Amino acid sequence: MVSYVVTTAHQAGYSQSEQARELAVVLRAQYVSRDDRSIADMVKEYEVDGVLVVSRQRTSLFVSGQEFFFHPGMAALRIKAILAGKTDQMVKAMGLQEGDRILDCTLGLASDAIVAAHVTGDHGTVVGLEVVPAIAALVRVGMTGARYKNARLAVAIRRIQVIEADYRDYLRRLPDKSFDVVYFDPMFRSGVQRSSNMGPMRVLADPSPLSTDALAEADRVATKAVVVKERRGSPEFARLGLSEQGGGRQASVAYGILRTEGGSP
C-alpha cells in the first residue's frame, strides 16, 4: 500500500486548501501545509511514498518520481473513431448497445468506461469500481472538475458513477442479472502500454490476478457477457477458461469473452 500526505500547490488559494483538507479526511491521510517545500523534501520529511497535491489546474499524486492524475487518455480519439463509423474492439467484444448497463470492475483511469458511457448513451448505466482509494479519489475529482472542448467526451464522463470498492465483495452483493456486461481490465502480468501515467499506476494498482471465483460471480451478474482485457497471447485466457477472444489482429491487447446463458455471440 502506497503511503502519502495531502497538500496544495505553492501559493494555493483558500478553496484548494479546503479541498485538500477534505480529501485528506476521505483518504484517511495526513494533511500538511505546503510552505516552500518541494515534493522530494516532503517525501523525506514525512517518510512517505508520495504526495497528493491539490492545485488550481488539477489534483495529482506524485509518486516514484512521476505525476499521476485523471485524464481521458485515448477515449476522445476512440469516440471520434466510433462517430466516423470505425470499429472499437472493446465495444465489439462487449456487444454494447444504447441503454446497456455496464459494470467496470477495474476502473483505473476510466478510459474504457468513458467509451462505454458514450456508446450506451443517456439511457445506459456505467458503474466503475476502483479498489485503491487514491485512484478512486483522483478520478472522481478529475471527472467533476475537468472541462473539455469535446462535448461528447464531457457528456460521457459525467455519465460514469465511480465507486470505491473491491469488485470481489461488490459482485457478491449484487442480484442476479443486474448488469448487461461485466468488464475486467486487470493489471497485466507484463506491461504493454507506454503512457506516462502507467508507471505510477503500476505502483498504485491492485496487482491481484482475476480469480475463477470472481469470474463466476460476474457470470451470475451479467445478462449478456463477461469481458476480460489482457495482453494478446496471455496465458490468463486459458487459465480462466476464456476460449472466445476478440480484438484486432495487430493489437497488443485482446478481449476474452464469456457469453452468459442467452447472450448472443
Structure, explained:
36% of the residues lie in helices and 23% in strands. It has 265 residues and is an alpha/beta fold. The protein folds into two domains: 4-57; 75-259, Vaccinia Virus protein VP39 (Rossmann fold), CATH 3.40.50. The strands form two sheets. Strands 8-7-6-9-10-12-11 form a seven-stranded mixed sheet, with helices on both faces. The chain has a five-stranded mixed sheet with strand order 2-1-3-4-5. Strand 1, helix 1 and strand 2 form a beta-alpha-beta unit. The longest helix is centred in the first third of the chain and has 14 residues, at 14-27. The radius of gyration is 19 Å and the shape is globular.
SS field, number of helical segments? 11
For the biggest sheet, the summary is: 7 strands, mixed
Query: Cα distance, first to last residue?
Result: 40 Å
Number of strands: 12
Radius of gyration: 19 Å
The CATH class of the largest domain turns out to be: Alpha Beta
Arrangement of strands in the largest sheet: 8-7-6-9-10-12-11
Order of helices and strands: EHEHEEEHHEHEHHEHEHHEHEE
Class from secondary-structure proportions: alpha/beta
CATH architecture of the largest domain: 3-Layer(aba) Sandwich
Poorly predicted regions? 188-197
- Annotated CATH homologous superfamily of the largest domain: Vaccinia Virus protein VP39
The helicity comes to 25-40%
Instruction: Provide the CATH topology of the largest domain.
Output: Rossmann fold
Instruction: Quickly count the domains.
Output: 2
The rough form would be described as: globular
Beta-strand content bin: 15-25%
Chain-averaged pLDDT? 91
